[in-house]
Design a protein that fits this description.
Elements (H helix, E strand, L loop, with lengths): L13 H7 L3 E5 L3 H6 L8 E2 L5 H4 L8 E5 L6 H12 L5 E3 L2
Parallel strand pairs: 1-2, 1-3, 3-4
Length: 97
Amino acid sequence: MAIQTRPPIRRIDIDEVQERIKGFVFVDARSATALTRNSLRVPGAIHVQAKNVDEDTKRLPRDRSLVTYCTCSDERTSTRVARQLKRARVSGGVSIT
């Protein structure tokens, strides 16, 4: 039986992180209720609720990668919004896990 090895995880410093995230737009996918419970946000994030994705996509850039986030323990809301944005053909979206 062959032993499987995991690929190494490359570490990056804060300067590289800051440079890489310049190309991302963060999308706060929390409901209005969740946002009221915890108003902390990623600076510059655009609030898009799952129930309003069709309307809110007009405020999102189409030429940058979108990163959705929420405060659900299973990332359910951010994943749902990322899928809706993908179906709406807004820039490639990923959900923070």
